[in-house]
Amino acid sequence: MSTVMTRPGRLAAAGQWMQRHGSVIRGIQWVVVAVYALLIIVPAVMPLPDDSAHLWNNLTLAAQFVFWGIWWPFVLLSMVMLGRVWCGVLCPEGALAEFASKHGRGKAIPHWMRWGGWPFVAFGITTIYGQMVSVYQYPKAVLLVLGGSTVAAIVIGLLYGREKRVWCKYLCPVNGVFSLLARLAPFHYKVDEDAWRRSYKNGEHGHRVIPINCAPLVPLRNMKGASDCHMCGRCSGHRDAIALTWRAPSSEVVELGDKHASAWDTALILYGLLGIAIGAFHWTASRWFIDLKMFFATWLVDHDITWPLQTNAPWFLFTHYPEQNDVFSWLDGTMVIGYILATALVYGTALLLLLMGATRMLGRLSSVRLHHLTQALIPLAGAGVFLGLSATTLSLLRAEHVPLWWASDVRIGILAIANLWSAWLLWLVTRRYSQRFVRRGLAMLWFAAALAVVDSAWWLMFWGWASK
Ligand code: SF4
């Protein structure tokens, strides 16, 4: 009991500290902007590292390790552990977008930008394009993909909103993923509706309420959950009604999933995180990819069609680094795109069918219930992307001869925890729709098959293909 009494107090105080020290947070943001600019610009104008280069004596390798080895996987992890603190406190793109918007034209947000499909489409396009230009390996590709995204964020900031993060809310390629993962965070800024109403009465008695600039445009009074909030702390204490508060990590998915989940969330989980992202990680390890490539190349040569085998595509379309012996032909590039899309279609559709089976066990097929049940896959989807990205971390460490005997056990451990977490979430979600154990148990069986399908992808990548 005593922990329950003391913890919220300390946490709320942390939120209040953030509210009072906004200038410190903005100072930190500019430091991150400077480091980010250094890491994406300098390696792009330096020669590529040779065989004698190491992480500790070559800025290009160090930047590669920082971006793809540490930054990306641990930003994803931080979403689950801390909510979107990264977005509100550290993200250089968010800081630049908001700054640009402060000094920009302040136009109204156009209708096209509010389309709900952007989080899925932007994630898919960026992931596939990143593979086309080998963004994990080459600094010029990093500058193009990350720098391009940053320039777009600034331009959107200059055009739309006043001191707002319009880019982050509508177009950022990882906004959708962050929004899904933050639903698992153990705390959030909670609105006490009674206190909010009371504050109106106090206002009538002359208490002045200072307006809050919520940069990612969260409607404060109706804020439920952590998915859209950037955890900047500015609204902490507002109307004596908003405070950083602990919650059960399952609560947002279980209690709000039916109201908040949408078809685009389902698409992002099944066809994005568990489809396109898996395809992007798979193709470099896949035996099938090599066999298919050989098959098509032989077929083309047999039919005297040689232009797809030429390697004259520019580096910003398909990977082109002859000095590193790393050059995509038109066939290679097309196959990368096709393989990723085919993987997304196969895994996404298989999972969708299994989740429809689970939904059907709880009553008539309903889209709300389907989208709600799909949210239970968020822990495993997030863990998969973390594992896929950390494969880059490990290969960079392997090149430095760091012993990695523990990696396989850690992967199994992460997958086991994520599977159990997803299964537990589904069990709680099913209780919202049926009190009958048999129905809930049958839904669990369908869901267990879905978990096995996802696990098969990671088994193939880390053990199946690796052992051949
Ligand atoms: S609701 Fe808005 S102002 Fe409040 S912490 Fe979240 S992002 Fe900041």
Structural account:
The chain is mainly α. It folds into two domains: 2-182, no CATH class; 256-464, no CATH class. The protein has helices at residues 2-20, 22-45, 59-82, 85-90, 92-102, 118-132, 139-159, 166-170, 175-182, 193-204, 251-260, 263-282, 287-302, 330-360, 367-374, 378-399, 407-431, 437-464; strands at 187-191, 242-246, 320-321, 326-327. The strands form two sheets. A two-stranded antiparallel ribbon has the order 1-2. Strands 3-4 form a two-stranded antiparallel sheet. It starts with a helix and ends with a helix. Bound molecules: iron/sulfur cluster (SF4). Iron/sulfur cluster binds at residues 88, 189, 212, 214, 216, 218, 220, 223, 229-235. This is 4Fe-4S ferredoxin-type domain-containing protein.
Provide a brief overview of the structure:
With 468 residues, the protein is mainly alpha-helical.
Summarize the SSE layout with pairings.
Blueprint: H1 2-20, H2 22-45, H3 59-82, H4 85-90, H5 92-102, H6 118-132, H7 139-159, H8 166-170, H9 175-182, E1 187-191, H10 193-204, E2 242-246, H11 251-260, H12 263-282, H13 287-302, E3 320-321, E4 326-327, H14 330-360, H15 367-374, H16 378-399, H17 407-431, H18 437-464
Helix pairs in contact: 2-3, 2-5, 2-7, 3-9, 3-16, 5-7, 6-12, 6-14, 11-15, 11-17, 12-14, 12-15, 12-16, 12-18, 13-14, 14-15, 14-18, 16-17, 17-18
The chain binds iron/sulfur cluster (SF4).
